[in-house]
Amino acid sequence: MSRPQSRVRRKAAFMQEAEKMYEELEEWYDKHPEASFGEIEAEARKQRRKLMGKMLGDFVNGRDVGVQIEAQKCEACGAKMEFEGYCGWNIHGLEGDSRLERAYYVCPHCKGQTLFPLDQKLKLRPDHWSEGAARVATRHGLQSKSFDKAAELYSDSTGGNMSGDSLRRITEGFGQRLEEKREKEAQQVYAEQRPEAAQAIVTVTHPIKEQASISTDGGMVLLRSEGWKEFKMSVISEVRVKAGKPSATEPHPDPQVSLHRHSYQVGLWTADQIGQHQYLEGTRRQVEGCAQLGSPNDGAVWINRITTTNYPQIVYSIDWAHASGRLSSVGKAAFGDGTTQAQQWAHETIDRLWHGQVAEVVTALQTLDWEHISCLDDIRNSPAYFENRQSNMEYARLRQMGFPIGSGAVEGGINTVVHHRMKRQGRGWKRNHAQSMMAALGELHSDRFLLAWQASY
Ligand SMILES: [Zn+2]
Question: Range of 85's domain?
């Protein structure tokens, strides 16, 4: 077993191993004189992992095996823990596989109270993977199409072997820790209802100063023994506005609006639950302090409710594509798909909507001969739909003020953050695993992976 040694001895032992490795490489090259660089590199990596894995064990144990001069006290009864012996531990790491010896202590009174001081100091993971190996594996697990593919990628990129199952456990374990943390934070932040107090609970990241946009929507994911279930997502984006360039045809152009630095909260939540997480995300981005706060969404009532409850000052609007698309559908239903009349009616009403004449659009809808139109209820509801949402459809004013009028950020997010990784046939995801994955994917795509990783250690 390893014992503390002087630095000189440690170094001598390492140099001896390094020399041995070099000789082995030479011998290997003698036997493979025609080897390509790739083959030589592969052999060197194998040897290097062997050398470094062993070296790390000796390096650590050469200084410390976890023997304590002043033994700790038992957590349960407060008695002084007693030294019992040494116990080995294998670690699979980025540099190779290492073995450590660790002193351990037991309580003379309590059964099962065992302490490994070195494990605490080195922050060893109970699953035998090093922190670095687990971090790299998790990144692959979140970005690859499957855990098996991620494991393949891990093995190829590090030279260490990992099974798809291990990689899944590591990735989901990280997600699980994030899920617990965000759940706790969301409840704390929401209970406060005062942003100053909430700021103290969360770590502010990528704060937005001038203008923020919040969009919310749902998507579907297949859950094991439950079928396809809806998840909900809120995305917060920084809005940048540039003055438009006047021209002969457009003397007063709209400002140019673009969305940046999206951050996501996504989970298998009820409307009220995502309301809490939207507020938590808003606190992290400091949106309360923004000069302008806008929110384009599809027409769902629950989105309006949670968003305006969180932010009464928010300028809530209906996504332009949804509103104009609905007018096109009405035109087709009323005048026949593909007819000139349908196109003309849609063109005129969409033009009015674009230029802020919402009341005229409502009148145009109300005066259609609905009794003789056969269509789905959703289309038939259009007059009421527009009438009830007039104040959320003042597109001319919204454009002039530099508000985004599209909810593309959340629709894109549903695809890139969740569907890309999680939408698949087969048995589907266990509910708690799906939730963990969404917690982790949200942080990854919000460019906060490392921050979240470090905070979970
Ligand atoms: Zn005890």
Answer: 7-124
